Prior knowledge:
Elements: H1 2-14, E1 27-33, E2 38-47, E3 50-59, H2 62-75, H3 80-84, H4 88-95, H5 104-121
Antiparallel strand pairs: 1-2, 2-3
Helix pairs in contact: 1-2, 2-4, 2-5
Amino acid sequence: xxxLYRDYILEHYRHxxxxxxxxxxxxxxxxxxxxxxxxxxxxxxxxxxxxxxxxFTGRGCAISQASASLLTDELxxxxxxxxxxxxxxxxxxxxxxxxxxxxxxxxxxxxxTLEHAIAEGGRDGATPADAxxxxxxxxxxxxxxxxxxxxxxxxxxAARPGPAGDAAxxxxxxGR
Length: 176
């Protein structure tokens, strides 16, 4: 049974749902795990308090990217209040496998990023979308703000590591 869930996670990693860029999001936040280098930028369009569109970009391990794919599938159509009530257990249930303590921060990066986007962006969606990051640097997620020589994960069509960790696979807005 674990192999089935591993395949499920790898499928979300290789072909993430909602991966891409929303040009003018109402809420936007970049989350990072400084321990391993995983990064996720989550973008939401909000209409009358309801999430009308959601997308993410990022790079990192299969767990962090699959978690973001699964969470964004759940968000569209939810109110911001409903989205704010997601718990770590909800994310772990979506992943469907036992997550070791060492990988827990990877699994919950998408939830942490969502929580910051909602809290820092305000509930009316009127706050500037480039509020900041969760990596502790205070640096906004600007194109080219990643590690030197790293692909710009915030750009449409940015390179995303493939299953073998290479940058051969590129992912734009497919799956959205």
